[in-house]
Amino acid sequence: MTTSAGFARRPTPTTGLSYDERRAYLFLTPLAAVLMGIAVFPILYSFYVSLYSIKLTRPQRAPFVWLDNYVVVLSDPQFWGAVERTVIFSVIAVAAILVLALLVALLLNEEFPGRRVLSALLLIPWAIPYVANALMWKWILYQLDFIDTYMVWLGDADKTLALIANAFVWKEVPLAAILLLVGLKTIPADLYSAAKVDGANVVKRFLHVTLPALGPSFALVLIYETMMAIRHFDLFFILTEGGPGDASHVVAWRIYVETFRNLSFGTGAAMSYILALATLALSYVFIRALAQRVTT
């Protein structure tokens, strides 16, 4: 086919990749290979391991047991005790993080002298590694002497989860506050002006303007912090090592004990997958609930 000027029109390709697309895929190939090696393969291999009865005490005998490892884990009373403690720890920690982070975000959203300095200082707990955070709180709890009667704080089974949650909250609040602060910055000032015109006081403006507008930010913080709390291990390992007794035996600690102390890699991998699926299910529920709220 020719144009009016007599030149042949080049046919438009309908299949195949362009030169730029081929180059893009070429440059992305090493990244994809790295991700497959360090992320996808371990996930698939751990599921493969969970289908075998693998114990390092008898490495030459690893029979294929299909889903028996999952049945063993789900029928273990100690596992369900760990689930209960994980739920208690997660509820305490996430609820405290949401409340404190909201208060900090509301404070930093106001104009006052030293706000920038306070914002910078807020990042310090978040920047501290979990190991250093745990060692710091362990030293603090052992050095407390503001009461007359000596108390082994981390040796009290009734207080252990709350004290570990305190250390977890101290580190996680800064990031949550920043996420909520970003949400506060996106709320149009016109909404507050209209609310003032309608006679809404500070409390009503907070309940009817600020909180609804922070819904997506709250959901993000809730999902992220819940996932972090459910699978958290570092503080339990350094502060109490699961003690006293089994007072801080959460699921993440049970996975460590089963895998690296009992050397039972099959049931340890099965427990890990159960924890991962539970976390995924909770995230799905939170996201669906938020989506339904937005659509309605």
Give your account of this protein's structure.
The chain has 296 residues and is an all-alpha fold. Helices cover 71% and strands 0% of the residues. The protein is built from twelve helices and no strands. The protein has helices spanning 19-50, 68-74, 77-108, 115-127, 130-143, 160-185, 189-197, 202-213, 215-230, 234-240, 251-261, 265-295. Helix 1 (19-50) crosses helix 12 and helix 6 runs antiparallel to helix 10 (234-240). It is globular and about 75 Å long. The model is unreliable at 1-12 (pLDDT under 50).
Detail the poorly predicted runs.
1-12
Cα-to-Cα separation, first versus last residue: 54 Å
Shape: globular
- Give the fraction of residues assigned to helices: over 70%
Percentage of residues in strands: under 5%
How many individual β-strands? 0
- State the order of secondary-structure elements, H for helix, E for strand: HHHHHHHHHHHH
- Number of helical runs? 12
**How large, in whole angstroms, is the Cα Rg?**
26 Å
Secondary structure category? mainly alpha
The main β sheet shows up as: none
What's the mean pLDDT score?
85
Which helices and strands, and how do they pair?
Elements: H1 19-50, H2 68-74, H3 77-108, H4 115-127, H5 130-143, H6 160-185, H7 189-197, H8 202-213, H9 215-230, H10 234-240, H11 251-261, H12 265-295
Helix pairs in contact: 1-12, 2-12, 3-6, 3-9, 3-11, 4-6, 5-10, 6-9, 6-10, 9-12, 11-12
